[in-house]
Amino acid sequence: MSAALLSVTGAVKHFGGVQALRGVDFDLKAGEIHALLGENGAGKSTLMNLLSGVYTPDEGEIRIDGEPVTFSNPREAQAAGIATIFQELDLVPSLDVAANLFLGRELMRAGGMLDVPAMRREAKRRLEAIELAIDPARLVADLSIGQRQVVAIVKALSYASRVLIMDEPTAALTVGEVERLFDIMRKLAASGVGIVYISHRLEEVPDIADRVTVMRDGRIAGITEPHTPQAELVRLLVGRPLDELYPERAKKAGKTLLSLKDASFRLARESAGWQPPSGISLEVKEGEIVGLAGIMGAGRTELLSALYGTGLAGRWQGEVAVDGRPVKLDSISAARKAGIAFVTDDRRGSGLMLRMAVGLNLVMSVIRRISPAGLMSPRRQAEAVRQSFGQFDIRPKNPDIAVGALSGGNQQKVVLAKEILGNPRLLLLDEPTRGVDVGAKGEIYARLRALAAQGLGILVASSEMPELIGLCDRIVVLRQGRNVAEFNGGVDEHTVLAAANGREA
Amino acid sequence: MSDQKISVAASPAASSPAATAAKHRVDPLAIIVRFQSLIGLVLVAIGGVIFSPRRHGEILFLNPDNIANIVRAVSETGIIAIGMTFVIITAGIDLSVGAVLGLSAVVTATMMISGGFGLISTIIAVLAMGIVFGVVQGTISTRFRLEPFIVTLAGLQAARGLALIVSGNQYINISYGDGPGLAPPVFAVLGERLFDNTVPVATIVFIIFAALATLVLNTTRFGRYVYAVGGNERAARISGVPVSMVKISVYAITGFASALAGIVHAGQFNFGSANDGLGYELTAIAAVVIGGTSLFGGAGSMVGTVAGTIMLGALANILQLNNITPATQLLATAAIIVLAAVLQSLVRRREGLGR
């Protein structure tokens, strides 16, 4: 066994009263791809930030090649050979690839002029070194997310080339892009780079990792082989078995709540390649959770937004009915009047007022109800906040702290609780557990099922197939904006995928 | 954000979930920022006492006449800053306020002197004009999705242009008396003091307006909408908040405030001129920012704005009492604005919620 390229022993880190790391040992060998798994809040980001010099540990030691090191800032970590690629790629979209690769260390001609040709030549050489054919003169804004990811890797490796830390690099990539990224990672590892690969996607682990470390509650929960069964990984992650994640399905559904027959809509802003869907037909009954499946661009988000009256050009065509009565759904207020509520897939961007208190966020959709005669009623507001805290286990149990300080899972609970306060009949959910840890996922699923049992109809779009299959009573598959197949919950994943891709199962 | 936290915490029922929770640590820096303008006001007042020139042992800074002068001098920009606070909490800005003050002063004088209108109808017409001006700016900004900075920059030019047209680039002097072409003598009360010649009437207008605005911002549905729009416009829209209506309304409020300040201006100085209120928009924005309201929107308070306004006035007063040049006053104001902004930025960074 070769000596560790990078090792951490007994790392402890506090933030105020919160202990993020409680004595963590971790090591990385040269040429190894080491997967680091953990729920949100398990401490993997903190560990990553220690390694990349963003934080310094309160206790414990970091060693490179057996020599103790201390980083007081990311630059020192880079100088020691550690490159980090954060989820938000630090690229400037309005500059070209070469300019991004040389940002802050531009090549100059005599006289202080930028030597653009030299930078482009060198950029091309570096990109080709990992067999990537991107024109260095292209703007980063024109690249796909996958290509940007690779540019970020090339850029990071030009600063530091011994250790590469990647935070959820595949989160926004398509299947093909993930494969290409993995190829590049394997090539880098083969050349001796040690890679720490942080991910939520358990199914990727056997494909790419040489070793797996699972974190939970600021500790190492286990170090295992990459071919460890997923159920075992989940048990390590959550501390309980997988089959408890999804609640039992409904016994029966009530009367039809939403019904679309041969319906269609146009988007106000249509992106390239988008075809206006024609002839959508689907139903959601009271007490039912219906899933929307489909590949990227199949129109899941667009359909949900259109049902909520946003982003429409003109109005719905065809039959759109709620409770058997035709409705227009051409504005947010029309949708809300019909009893429809919507939870976006972008809770930070369009779901929450991050700097405002949890309590104020919770009552946002019921301001009218808690302000009789236009005056805010502190009593009604407090009642509403209490109701939400009673329904959803939002932690910490303090309505006065800024919602932005909560974990992703708790923020998602706030967004959900906020809409539930409005007593909707039909809840539209877009990616309800994106960036949410497994523990909070289980709580959210249980809550949704309980609400459905009280008669709420739920239409949920998700790109996580196991989630749709485990949670939903029925799954409607969208392709090019319209429904092409329908399955009962619990269906085989390949059957759904085949329908989503337009192939026979 | 700090101020809305109170509204949840202050209600005994809401704190019950909080009671079971672990004690939330309070950042001392956040407290300082929350009360920064009040702290600043106290510091300036103490400085005023220390550095005040004395005559026969009397501290001139604390002389009742001097204090009355301070609060009178700030009342016009104060009224505007009150309106501006609404706009800035929605993450907007209104650059037209000083120009609308000038236009309003000119129209007030012209209506009463050359127009022969009565006092009441003049005041109602000018306030309505201010509201309409704001509604037009708000509507253009929301309808065409234009930055309020640009729309109100144009509004500034438009209001100054209109004021020049109405006034013919002349001072419109207000003479008092009964009959056409004269303003009713009661209008001159705006330049006087009440309660044994102690409290300036302009200040009373400022204080009443501030009190009403505080109530609207803190206790009404509309006030909550204002915070919501500034906190996250898209989230507010999705939650069913009538975002466009709220935005148009806050510009109507600044329009109203500017018109009110214009009337006060005309009454205090007995004339209207197209150049009245030059640069007031910047003083008002400075007072709001020093008062702890975030230019990013979603956070701020009316009390802070009032304290910020008076603090700037008191500072200018001390410097004047010591015969320090206006140039130095500008530099001192600059330093205070930067200090206030730096403090806010530090708190944001501590919260990990942006740079």
Which key terms come to mind for this protein?
heterodimer; A: 505 residues; alpha/beta; Rossmann fold; 3 domains; six-stranded mixed β-sheet; 17 helices; globular; B: 355 residues; mainly alpha; ABC transporter involved in vitamin B12 uptake, BtuC; two-stranded antiparallel sheet; 16 helices; 69% helix
Can you tell me about this structure?
The complex is a heterodimer of chains A (505) and B (355). Chain A is an alpha/beta fold. Chain A folds into three domains: 4-240, P-loop containing nucleotide triphosphate hydrolases (Rossmann fold), CATH 3.40.50.300; 256-339 and 424-501, Rossmann fold; 357-423, no CATH class. Chain A has helices at 44-51, 74-79, 97-101, 116-129, 145-159, 175-190, 205-208, 230-238, 300-307, 332-337, 347-351, 358-362, 378-391, 408-421, 438-453, 465-471, 493-501; strands at 4-15, 18-29, 33-38, 59-64, 67-69, 82-85, 163-167, 194-198, 211-216, 219-224, 256-267, 280-285, 289-293, 312-322, 325-326, 340-343, 426-430, 457-461, 474-479, 482-488. In chain A, a hairpin with a 2-residue loop joins strand 4 and strand 5 (67-69). In chain A, helix 5 (145-159) runs parallel beside helix 6 and helix 13 (378-391) packs across helix 14. The model of chain A has no long low-confidence stretch (mean pLDDT 86). Chain B starts with a helix and ends with a helix. The model of chain B is unreliable at 1-24 (pLDDT under 50). By secondary structure, chain B is mainly alpha-helical. Chains A and B meet through helix 10, helix 11 and helix 13 of A and helix 1, helix 2, helix 11 and helix 12 of B.
